[in-house]
Amino acid sequence: MRTIGEVSDALGIRQHVLRYWETQFPMLQPVKRSGSRRYYRPEDITLLATIDRLVHQEGYTLKGACQLIEAGQAGNAAALQSKAATVPADPDGESLHDSLKKLRDRLAVSLASS
Fold it and tell me: In the chain, which ranges are E strands?
């Protein structure tokens, strides 16, 4: 079991953010001992790391991250996103990601020549 300070240092997340996440994620319930000291179990730390990844790396809102975790799909979020980006967008077999890149490049050229 780790204190809030230890978890904060290990994950690089400020303590007030960890306390706030406890209010937003009902499944996050560290053990509270005398004086309301929080002690995080290994599963709590794993959940915090997942929340951090979803919110700060994958761009989910807190509500969206909570829904994903409750649905049991938090570990699959990155895989689902990358799979969606490679689904063919047209009959030529070009992926959505590639189509968007080409569109971005055309817009940049168009704006540069204006």
Answer: 2-3, 31-32, 38-40
